[in-house]
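COMPLEX REQUEST
Ligand: glutathione
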Amino acid sequence: MILIGQYDSPFVRRVAIALRLYDLSYEHRPWSTFGDADRIAPYNPLRRVPTLVLDDGEILIDSAAILDHLDELAGPAKALIAQSGPARRHALKICALATGLADKAVSLVYERALHQQTSQQWIDRCVSQIAGVLDALQADRAGRPASLWFGEAVGHADIAVACVLRFTGEAHPALFDLTRWPALAAHAARCEALAPFQAIAQRFIPPN
Ligand SMILES: N[C@@H](CCC(=O)N[C@@H](CS)C(=O)NCC(=O)O)C(=O)O
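STATUS: Structure written out below.
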């Protein structure tokens, strides 16, 4: 398999950490969405990452579809999410909040880096959406005593939240001081100390 995209993307990093936890080998092509758009285009007309090229040449786009396939490859015994029922729905909701937050944090980067004249209305909206999600995640995490979100084993929810917290902290340090959300800061620190998170990391590089 070939994984296209840089690890400073919370979506790419999330997929790469899952690949590592599932012990699935892959070639990494750390192409930048802007600088390497022409290289990405033949694989994904959206010129977005992550893009995953399977061994038979099939190409998967969008992290949710990619992870769905990786879960299938890993099988139910190793899957990083419950197979069914309330536990699965809850984990999917935490993942949706984290990835929605990532969408907003990425959008905010583009608004500030790529527009000569920014829209304060859009910036304010993104900031309040991000803060609202951080509040909701903080409330959920604070009520859970286990060392990780759903127990002692790393799952998709842990990965999604940790990846977006790191991205948000690096991309918008002045806007989101994570000490405002202590249960999340502790969660991120716990995840970032684990070997796969340490191995798969890249400091945020703004687009230009
Ligand atoms: N829904 C997508 C979002 C991926 C995404 O936003 N990737 C960013 C990099 S962090 C990207 O490719 N941006 C370039 C663009 O959207 O034009 C997913 O989950 O894979």
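REMARKS: The mean pLDDT is 97. The CA atoms of residues 22 and 74 lie 6 Å apart.
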